[in-house]
Amino acid sequence: MMADGPTPMNNQAQAQQQQEILVRKMLETAKPRSCKCGCQAYEQAIAIMEVSALDPNNPTGQQQHLNYPVLCCVKCQTVFDPMGKIAK
Questions:
Q1: Distance separating alpha carbons of residues 87 and 6, to the nearest angstrom
Q2: pTM of this prediction?
């Protein structure tokens, strides 16, 4: 006997479809972000962040290195870091 109503898989697929529709709508009005050199193309890169052993948020108590995703301009290699974590 089949259960009535949507399954969790269907709910997840519907939520993903709604998210994709929302992103498409937002892209219709979004403006490209240009680098200071005028280029509008970026590629993904990873910055390495060091966490001190003394940092109270560090659960291990040992120095750690974390991967931090950033974007780099393909023309001049300027790092686009929207969270401002990379030192200038």
A1: 49
A2: 0.58
